[in-house]
Specification:
This protein is an all-alpha fold. It has ten helices and no strands.
Length: 231
């Protein structure tokens, strides 16, 4: 918000995203920026976090009421796909993909071999993406790598059961990804207002250099503080 205010004062325009008013600020503040709207504002990428928040709440309700019930997960997935096709609602789209994954997670342990589970997982991914494509939510050509690539990677990793313990010295890579996601747009806005476009490696390096201490000095302490007060 501060960067956008400076941009408007200095250049007379917003950077990257518009809709930077009080209404959208309050929506951002409560992680509600895209519950019922596709408007982007301030730190635009957080739209996905706002959508996922509702789906996670729905998942908790599902667990409380149905447990890990396969039929319920499939029913929610199917209903969400239908709703997505008719409305294009982002929450419904996320719920369709998420509960498809829930159904797969329930099914997978029932197979003695990893390969059938992997094939079913691929079919879930393919069905979800094809349904979204038919609803004109994603163009076919840009999504081709997702349609082909995601199921292929899923099949490969599940079939091989490829797991390994990441050395503790490298845990910062995974730990900092959330901060990377939320910091990359403010960093981009700041660069646009100061030095302009920089090489990709410099941009990525700066974002990571900020994200790692953000995780260790802010995100992790805040997680501990919140958990200590919520039991």
């Amino acid at each position: 918000a501060g960067l956008q205010a400076v941009s408007m004062y200095k250049f007379g325009t917003w950077q990257v995203y518009g809709n930077n008013d009080l209404h959208h600020f309050l929506l951002q503040l409560f992680l509600a920026s895209n519950w019922s709207s596709s408007d982007y504002s301030f730190n635009g990428p957080i739209w996905s976090v706002s959508i996922e928040e509702l789906v996670y709440i729905g998942f908790l309700i599902y667990l409380k009421s149905a447990g890990l019930n396969l039929r319920a997960a499939l029913a929610i997935c199917a209903a969400s796909l239908v709703l997505t096709g008719f409305t294009g609602n982002l929450v419904a789209q996320c719920a369709a993909l998420f509960f498809g994954g829930v159904a797969f997670a329930i099914l997978a342990p029932r197979f003695p071999s990893r390969m059938p589970a992997a094939v079913i997982g691929c079919l879930f991914v393919l069905a979800a993406y094809v349904a979204l494509a038919l609803a004109d939510l994603e163009p076919w050509i840009p999504a081709l790598l997702i349609y082909v690539g995601a199921p292929s990677v899923l099949l490969l990793f599940i079939a091989l059961d490829y797991r390994f313990e990441l050395p503790r010295q490298l845990h910062w890579i995974g730990a900092s990804t959330y901060a990377i996601y939320l910091l990359h747009m403010p960093v981009l806005i700041l660069l646009r207002m100061t030095v302009g476009i920089v090489p990709l490696w410099a941009f990525v390096g700066l974002v990571v250099a900020l994200a790692v201490p953000t995780y260790y000095w802010f995100e992790a302490p805040m997680q501990r503080w919140i958990r200590s007060r919520t039991g």
